Amino acid sequence: MAGLMAGFARYTHAVVRGIPTSLAADALRSSRSDVDLAKARAEHEAYVAVLRTELGLDVVELAADESLPDCVFVEDAAVVCGDTALVTRPGAESRRGETEAMKGALKDLNLNIVEMTDENATLDGGDVLFTGREFFVGLSKRTNQRGAEILADAFKDYAVSTVPMLEALHLKSFCSMGGPGLIIIGSSEPAQKALKIMQQMSDHRYDKLTVPDDLAANCIYVNLPNKGHVLLHCTAEEFPESTKVFEKLKDYTLIPVSNMEKVKLDGALTCCSVLINKKGNN
Amino acid sequence: MYLCFFLVFVCPVKRETPGGILSPTKRDGSSWLIDWSSGRPVTMTTEVGSETEVKEKAEESATQSDQSEKATEAESQEVASAEGEEKETEKEKEKEKEKEKEGKGISRYLPWLKKQKSQSQTSPTKEVTPTEEAISTVKQEEEGPAPEVNGHAEEVEEKEAAKSEQVKEKEAESHSNASADTEPAKEEKVDESPDKSAEETKETTEGEGVHEDKKEQEGEVQGEGEGGEEGQTSIFQSPLRLVRKTKMKLVVCRVTQMDGADFTCEVEKRAKGQYLFFKVCEHLNLLEKDYFGLSYIDSHEQKCWLDPTKEIKRQIRSNNWQFSFNVKFYPPDPSLLTEDITRYLLCLQLREDVASGRLPCSFVTHALLGSYTLQAEFGDHEPDQPQPLDYISQVTFAPNQNKEMEEKILELHKSHRGMTPAQADAQFLENAKKLSMYGVDLHHAKDSEGVDIMLGVCANGLLVYKDRLRINRFAWPKILKISYKRNNFYIKIRPGETEQFESTVGFKLQNHRSAKRLWKVCVENHSFFRLNAPEPPTKARFLTLGSKFRYSGRTQAQTRVASSLIDRPAPNFERTSSKRISRSLDGAPVISITDTAENGREPHLELHSDSKVEEVDLSPGDVEATSAQSPLRVHGDNIYVRHSNLMLEDHDKTQDEVLKHQASISQLKRSFMEAPPPSPPQLNQWEKRLTSSPATTIRVQQQQVSLEEEIASVLLSRPSCAGVFSAAEAVCSFPDPTLDAALTARSAAALSATEVSEPRVEAAAAAADSTISDTKEPAKTGEVEIEETVVVKEVSKATKPGLVTVTVTSSSPDGLSGDKETREQEVKVEEKVVVTVETKAVKQESISSESESEEEAEYHPNVSVSISHTQIPEEDEEEGKIEEDKTTEQDMSAPYVASHPAEIVQLAEEISRGVEESRKEDTEAAKKKIAVMEKEGVKETEESTDDPMMTSDEALNGLTPTGEAVTGLEEEEEPKVNGQASLVEPDQPRPQVICCSEPPVVKTEMVTISDTFAAQKTEIATKEVPIVHTETKTITYEAAQLDGNGDGEPGVLMTAQTITSESLCTTTTTHITKTLKGGLSETRIEKRIVITGDCDIDHDQALAQAIKEAKEQHPDMSVTRVVVHKETELAEEED
Asked: In Å, how far is A193's CA from the nearest CA of chain B?
C-alpha cells in the first residue's frame, strides 16, 4: 500500500466513451457553433490512442449512447481518487443518465463506488480539481454546495474547498494540474480570481503556470514510471501562445493533442476521460 | 488617557522589631549571620526569643521555620554569640560557597544538617536530585541560623506531624531537631524570601503572597507547609509554594491517559495546572511535553485546556478532579520529534481521534492506520497463530468499523512484516499528518448570516467549514487581531494586495464561554506555531478590557530547540498492548513519588533534561560558559525576539510594520536627543542578570516550569556565581563612582545578601556586553525623571527588576505590537505620579487582583513576540498567585536593584513602564525603541533605522562602547542625583516638595501603518509617519529629609517584592523593599500608579487620592517623594 497521497498522477486505467451522432446537434454548448461530427470522432480517436499508446493506459471504452449526446465527456460522471470512485449527479438533467454506464465500468475495476443519491446535490466532475493534496470544487451552474459536501464525504482524507465560479462552465475550464504542486491557470480575470481563492484556502503552496488562453490551461498531466512528467496539452494550431509556455517546461514530455471540435462543446482535454490508478490497490 | 502613578514606600528603620533582626537575643535567641552561597555576609539576626516571638516568626514566614530548625540545632553550635558568630558564619559561608561549588558541600558545613537528615524519618532528600540537595543545603546554610520552627521534611503524611512539631517548637524552641528533618531544599526555598528581611519577615510575607499570609495567620506552622510540599511537590521546589501548600489539602487527581489508563496522583488543592501536568509527564517519562496538555470537562460539559499557570481548583470550578492528558498542539511534521516516546504518545492520541471520528478518514486510510497500529502493538503478523479478527474487533480503529475493514487491516498488517514498533508509529504518523483535519480543533459557530459553520484552529491558521467543506481560511499571517466580545468572535484581516483597508470578520459562538475558549485556543495555537517565543501576558493594558491570557508554554520553535538537546538514551516504554494485559496494575492509584521511582529518574533530573538549555546556565562554575551559552539563554531571549521579528518579516511582515518600525526608531531618536543621558553599563548587567538569571530564563522559555523549579534553578546557579561574584561586584562598583562609595559598598552587600542576586551578578558579568535592554534604558532615560533615581538609591526597588526585564522585551518586538495597538488610539494622556513614602512600620499593600473580564479580549497575533521576563504568565484572577510570582521575581531582582545606582533603577522602571504602556501606546513603544536604537548604535544609526533587529544584534555585539558613553553621561547627571537624594527621615511623615523637574516635553510620533506603503523597508521614510504628539511632564515632590541611604553604611537588602494590581484603567505596581542598614531596617514602598483615561486626568486629584490611599494603607509611613509624570497627546492619533 502506497499510503496516502502517494504517487500523484500515476494512472493505470482510463475510461472513455464514444461519440454519439447526436453530439453534433444535441450536445450542450455555451456558444452557438457547428460541430463536425467526423472531425470530432477523429479527434477523439487520436485522443484515445494517445492514452493507450503514449501513456500506456488500459483504456476502457464505453459505447456511445445516442440518447446521451454529451456522453463523451465522461469526466463529469465520476470522480476517482485512489480506489474510491464517486459517481456524480451531473448538473445538467440531460446528462444524468451518463452515470449509469460509468458506474458499471468503475465497478468492474473494483473501485469503491460512492453514489450521489441526494436529489439536491449536483456535481460535475469538471468542477473538481484534485491537486494530489486536496480538492477544489467549483461552485458553478452545474455543481452546488451539496454536491461538494458529498464529495467531501466520499474523500474524507482530503480537504475540500469550494471555489465560487462566476463565468466559466467548469472550474477546470481554465485550470488543471500540470504536475505535483503545479497549477496551470488561464490568464483571464475569473481564472486568476479563482486561483487566488484556491491559494488562500490551501495549506499548501502551489506553483502556478499561467497561460494566455483559459482553454489551453486544461491539460492532462500524467506521471509515468518510464517517462516521468507527461503533459497532454493543446496544439500550437489552436493556442500558439499558450503552447509556447508549455514548451518551456523542463523535463516534460509534451504531447500536443488536438481538441478543435470538442472545444466547441466546451469540452476540454480532461473532459473526455476518467483516469484511474489501480496499482495502489493491489 | 494615561495615568501612571508611581508609589514608593520606604519603611523606616526599626530597632528591635518583634522579628528582632537586630534585637539582642532574648532568652535562647541567637543571632546569626546568614551566609549566602555567594559568601557574602548578611547580617541577619533572628531572635529565637520567647515562644510568642517564635510564633510570630513562624507566622511571618514559613521559611523561618527551617531556619528555626537549623537555629535550634545551630544554637548549640553557633548560638554562642550572634555577633561573634556572624564573623564566623561569614567564614563558614565562604567555605560553604566553596562547598556549594562542589555541589554537595553543605552537609559538611552544617553538621546539624547531617544530623537532621539522619534523623529525618522520611527524608525527602532521596527524592531530591543531587543538585537539588546541594541547593537546598546551600540554602540552609544561607538561612542556616533561623531559630524558628523547624521545617518538616517529611512526606505528605507529615503535615500533621509538622503541625505537632510546630506546636512543640512553640513550646520549646530548642528541641526542634527531631522534627527538623526537613528537606533542605524546601526549607531553603522558603527561607529565601524571609531571609532577606528577618524582622520584616511578617510584612514581607504578607507582601509576597496572600496565600502565605493567610496560612501563616491561620497559625499553622511553617513546618507544615514544608512537610506538605515535600510529600508531593518535592519535584518542584519553590519555597512559596511550599508555604502555600502547608495549609493546602491534598486532592486526588485522576488523569486519563491516552492509552485509556488512569493516572492518579495527589495534588495540593491549590496546585497549579503545570504541577499536575509535570507529574503526568514525569509519569510518562515524556520530555517533549510542550505538545501536550491536560484537559478537563467544565461545568458546561465543554472540554477545556487546563491553564498551567493557574490553580487547578480555580479552573475546574467543581470538585471533579478528573482530567485527561492529550495532545494540545499537533506537530505538523511528527518526524521532527526527537523521541519515539513522543511519537508514540502522538500516535495514541491520533488513534483515539481516528477511532472517535474526530479525525475523519477514508476507509482505506482507516485500514492503513489500523494496520500500522497492529504492527506497532503486536509486531509481525504471525500466520501460525490465528490472529483472528477476534482481537482486532476488540480494538476500535474506526467509528464505523466493520468486518470488511478489519480484514483489510489484517491484510495490510501482513505487508508490514519486519517493521519495528517505532517505524510503524512513524508510518502511522506520516499518513495521519496528511489528513486534512489533522490537528484541527473545531468549534461550532455561526456566520454573520446565522448559518451554522465550524471554525477550525490549526497550526496554519483559522479554517472555516460549512459542513465538511472548507469555505474560507485565514492563515495566521493574514490575521491582524483576534478578539472576542460576549459571544462574538472577531478576526481582523490584513488587507490584500489590492485592498485598502483591513476587514473584520465576525462569528457568533454559542455563548461567551465558547467565544473565549475559541479565542484562547487561537492565541495558543498562534503563539505555539507562529512565534519563536511566547508573548508575555499584557500587564499594561489600560483601555483594553478583557482577558490578558497568553500562551505561557514553550513555542514549537523553542521546544524543538529544547528537544534537540535531549541526549538521554531512548527510554523504554510500554505500549498499550502490553499495558492492556497489566492494566490492573496501571489502574491502581500511584503516588507520584512512586512513579518517579519507577521511572528511575529524579523528577528534577527530568526537568533539567527537558530544559537543558536552561540548565546550562544553572550549572555551577559556568560563568563563562553562561556567557558563551548566552545565545541560548541569556541572550536567548533577545535572539528569540529577533527571530520572531524575522519570522514575522518573512511571512507576515507587511510594509506597514516596517513603517512602524522605522517611525518608532525615528521617534526614539528624537526622544533620545531631548532626553537626559541614559544610564551606564550597569543597566546592562541588570538586564543581563535578569535575562540570564535562570529563573527568568526558565520563565520565559518554559513557563510551564513551576516556580519551585525556578527557584531551585536559581539556587543551583548560585554556586557558580560565587566565583563570578567578585567580578560582578567590581562591575557594580565601577559604574557607581559618582555615587557615594557607601552606595557601592552597599550594593555589593545587597548583592551578597540576596541569594538570587549572585547568580545574576555572574550572568551580568558574563553578559557584560549590553543586552538589548541596555539600549532601551537610555530611551527611558529621556522620559524618566532623574530625581527618582535618588529615591531608588535608598530604596531598593524590587519592582524594577521586573520592569527592567520588560524593557528588554520592548526593544525588539514591542514596536510592532505597539504600533498596531496604536491604531486603536486608546491611550491619549499619560500621567505618572511617583510617590515615595517612608513609614516606620511597613504594611503590605493590599493587592487588588486584576480583573479579567470574560466578556472580551483581544490578541494581536502578528505582533512580534515580545518576551518579558517580568511578566507573569498567570492570569491574575487569583490574587495570591500573582503575588507569589512577583515575589519570586522580586527576590531575584531586588539585589540587582540595590546594587545599581538608583538612577539606573529608575530608568529601568520607567522603561519598563514604558514597555508596558508601549504595548498599548505606539508612542511609548516608539520612544523606547528609538532609545534603544540610539544607545546601541548612535553611530550606526542608519543601519538601525533600516532594521531594528539588526540594531539589536549590533548592540549586543558592540554595546560596550556605547555603554561607556552612557556611563559618562551618567556621571554627569549624578551630581543632580546626589543633590536630590536628600535623606529621608522616617519621623517626618509629611511629604515636601523638593523639586519640580522641568517637564521634559517629548514629542512622540505615532506611526500609522498603511498598507499603501508597500515596497521595501529601506524605501520607507520615517518622517512620513509622524502622527501623535505626546507631552510629558514630570513633577517631583520630595520630603525635606530623606533618609540617607547613601550613607556610608552599606545597606543589606532584606527583602524586596513587587505587587502589581490592575483594574480596567489603573495599574498599580507596588514595590516593597526592606533594607537592613547598620542595624536599622528600613522598609520602602514604592507605588507606581498608572492611570489611563480618555479624558484629561486631574493629576492633582489623582495624586491626592493616591497619597491618601497610601497613608491609609500604611498609617505609619510617611510620604517622602512624589513624582508625577504626565503625558498627554497633543494631537489626535490618526486611525
From this structure: 12
Say yes or no for a CB contact (<8 Å) between B473 and A155. Answer: no
Chain A neighbors of B436, CB-CB under 8 A: 134, 157-160
- Chain B: give the shortest CA distance to residue A266, in Å: 27
Question: Does any CB of chain B come closer than 8 Å to the CB of residue A84?
Answer: yes
Q: Which residues of A touch B475 (CB under 8 A)?
A: 200
Ligand-binding annotation for A28, yes or no, is yes
Structure-block grid coordinates of residue A127:
468542477
DSSP B717-775: HHHHHHHHHHHHHHHHHTTGGGS-HHHHHHHHHHHHH-TTHHHHHHHHHHTTS--HHHH
Write out chain A's pLDDT in tens, 282 residues: 444 445 788 999 999 999 999 988 888 887 777 888 999 999 999 999 999 999 999 999 999 999 999 999 999 999 999 889 999 999 999 999 999 999 999 999 999 999 999 999 999 999 999 999 999 999 999 999 999 999 999 999 999 999 999 888 899 999 999 999 999 999 999 999 999 999 999 989 999 999 999 999 999 999 988 888 999 999 998 899 999 999 999 899 999 999 888 888 888 999 999 999 987 544
Helix (H), strand (E), coil (C) string for chain A: CCCCCCCCCCCCEEEEECCCCHHHHHCCCCCCCCCCHHHHHHHHHHHHHHHHHHCCCEEEEECCCCCCCCCCCHHHHEEEECCEEEECCCCCHHHCCHHHHHHHHHHHCCCEEEECCCCCCCCCHHHEEECCCEEEEEECCCCCHHHHHHHHHHCCCCEEEEEECCCCCCHHHCEEEEECCEEEEECCHHHHHHHHHHHHHCCCCCEEEEECCCHHHCCEEEEECCCEEEEEECCCCCCHHHHHHHHCCCCEEEEECCCCCHHHHCCCHHHHCEEECCHHHC
Cell for B954? Answer: 549590533
Which ranges of B295-362 does DSSP label H, i.e. alpha helix?
A: 312-316, 340-356
- Using a CB-CB cut-off of 8 Å, the residues of chain B touching A162 are 469-471
User: CA-to-CA distance for B132 and B704, rounded, in angstroms?
Assistant: 19
User: A142 among the known binding-site residues?
Assistant: yes
User: Pick from B502, B503, B508: which is nearest to B449 by CA?
Assistant: B508
A271 catalytically annotated: yes
Q: Which residues of B touch A155 (CB under 8 A)?
A: 362
B1068 Cα distance to chain centroid: 18
Locate the chain B residue with the closest alpha carbon to A3.
B431
- Residue whose C-alpha cell reads 518600525 in the numeric block: B661
Distance CA B745, CA B318 (A): 54
CA dist list (Å): A91 to A98, A99, A190: 12, 12, 21
Is A219 designated active site?
no
Do residues B811 and B661 lie in contact, with contact meaning Cβ atoms separated by under 8 Å? Answer: no
CA gap B1087, B7 in Å, rounded: 2
Nearest to A159 among B364, B415, B470 (CB): B470
What CA–CA distance (Å, rounded) separates B91 from B325? 51
Measured CA to CA, the distance from residue B1119 to residue B1105 in angstroms comes to 13
B-proximal residues of A, 150-169, CB under 8 Å: 152-153, 155-162
Give the span between the Cα atoms of B1111 and B1119, in whole angstroms: 8
B→A contacts (Cβ < 8 Å), by residue, are 360-365, 368, 371, 412, 415, 427, 430-431, 434-437, 458, 460, 466-473, 475
- For residue B27, count other CB atoms closer than 10 A to its CB: 14
Residue B1020's alpha-carbon distances to B211, B662, B948, B1003, in angstroms, are 53, 8, 14, 21
- Residue pair B800/B750 in contact (Cβ under 8 Å)? The answer is no
Confidence of residue B1040 (pLDDT cuts 50, 70, 90): very low
